[in-house]
């Protein structure tokens, strides 16, 4: 890591004071190759989002929370099973006509800036890059590729080596920096059947990385991402493969459907405490304010902005979707802000805060 970057990060950590009460961040290291794979900004944090594609509105609800295709290890689908929250006005601007980009550009229109990171979900057996992936990689946005996990024991046995090798070569062939978030939320009980144990998960993670290394894939940053809740109710940290195996540490951090109201600071508190002992940049890959918070959504987002301005947090990704709701009336798991003027305005404030715009991308007036 360049000495200048280390110095800048250390200075920022010493100067920053954030509402979450975090102390100075550790010196940040990464195995990712600078200039080829995504590396953390010297100051601030990238801002990104998951914005479901337009055709997702035509699909039937999944009937269960967190049920994107990436949760099914045998699923070959892409996108999300149900989604709402697209801008009512036809989006305009650069890249709007590229495959899969209409919803992304529409969301950017609402925020008044381009995203740094666009998230994409792919099933374990789904080929990539898909249309959205190719469109993102063709511009100056980073792709966060969330790839589902297969059965960890089968992976270690070599059952899927050909599939893994094919995916590794496909990512290498793009020639563009890619965040790879494999088998997210591995600590949840819903994944136990294919994850088995923490030891099995770690062995599978190392097996994947070994194949990517054999294929000389150096444009990937490996993102390890359990649930934030797993640091309180479970043992998420036991799934950590080690500092030499991980580039970014991450958590999915919605406030939880069993709370009437809960600040993001509470949702990420134990995860951030755990992360202080790891010299890694932090990504919050799925965070969102529930529609159930109604008039307090803007308040929640402004508090979240303060919490996330943490010297170790280097990327945040908003989950602008309602697909996790259990039914049409489940507003505790609905996170799209589109159509809620006050929430959109507050998210725009967050996204255009200099801390979350480290590349100094243009900001349009409005909001």
UniProtKB/TrEMBL annotation:
Instruction: Cite the entry's keywords alphabetically.
Output: Glycosidase, Hydrolase, Signal
| UniProt KW Coiled coil keyword | no
* Disordered, as annotated region: 47-100
Per the UniProt entry, the signal peptide is 1-24
Membrane-spanning parts: none
The record's annotation in InterPro entries points to:
GH, GH26_dom, Glyco_hydro_26
Q: Which Gene3D superfamilies match?
A: Glycosidases
The molecular function GO annotations come to: hydrolase activity
Every copy of the GH26 domain together lies at 1-347
Q: Biased composition, Low complexity: where in the chain?
A: 61-83
Q: Which PANTHER family match?
A: GH26 DOMAIN-CONTAINING PROTEIN-RELATED, MANNAN ENDO-1,4-BETA-MANNOSIDASE E-RELATED
What family does the database annotate? Belongs to the glycosyl hydrolase 26 family.
Q: Could you tell me what this protein is called? A: Glycoside hydrolase family 26 protein
- Taxon lineage: Bacteria, Bacillati, Actinomycetota, Actinomycetes, Streptosporangiales
């Amino acid at each position: 890591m360049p000495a200048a970057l280390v110095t800048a990060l250390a200075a920022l950590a010493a100067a920053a004071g954030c509402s979450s009460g975090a102390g100075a961040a550790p010196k940040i290291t990464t195995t990712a190759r600078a200039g080829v794979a995504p590396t953390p900004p010297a100051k601030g944090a990238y801002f990104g989002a998951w914005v479901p594609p337009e055709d997702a509105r035509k699909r039937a609800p999944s009937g269960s929370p967190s049920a994107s295709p990436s949760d099914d290890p045998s699923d070959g689908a892409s996108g999300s099973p149900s989604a709402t929250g697209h801008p009512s006005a036809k989006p305009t601007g650069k890249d709007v006509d590229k495959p899969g980009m209409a919803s992304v550009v529409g969301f950017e229109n609402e925020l008044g800036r381009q995203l740094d990171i666009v998230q994409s979900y792919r099933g374990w057996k789904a080929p990539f890059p898909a249309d959205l992936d190719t469109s993102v990689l063709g511009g100056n946005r980073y792709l966060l590729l969330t790839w589902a996990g297969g059965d960890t024991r089968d992976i270690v046995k070599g059952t899927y080596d050909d599939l893994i090798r094919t995916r590794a070569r496909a990512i290498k062939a793009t020639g563009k920096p890619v965040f790879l978030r494999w088998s997210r939320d591995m600590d949840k009980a819903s994944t136990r059947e294919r994850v088995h144990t923490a030891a099995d998960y770690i062995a599978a993670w190392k097996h994947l990385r070994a194949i990517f290394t054999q294929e000389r894939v150096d444009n990937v940053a490996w993102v390890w991402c359990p649930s934030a809740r797993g640091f309180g109710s479970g043992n998420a940290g036991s799934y950590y493969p080690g500092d030499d195996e991980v580039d970014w540490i991450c958590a999915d951090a919605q406030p939880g459907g069993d709370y009437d109201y809960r600040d993001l600071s509470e949702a990420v508190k134990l995860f951030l405490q755990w992360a202080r002992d790891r010299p890694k940049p932090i990504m919050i890959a799925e965070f969102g304010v529930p529609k159930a918070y109604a008039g307090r959504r803007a308040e929640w987002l402004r508090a979240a902005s303060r919490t996330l301005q943490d010297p170790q947090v280097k990327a945040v990704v908003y989950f602008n979707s309602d697909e996790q709701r259990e039914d049409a009336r489940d507003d505790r798991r609905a996170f799209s802000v589109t159509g809620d003027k006050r929430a959109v305005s507050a998210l725009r404030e967050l996204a255009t805060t200099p801390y979350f715009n480290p590349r100094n991308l243009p900001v349009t007036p409005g909001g």
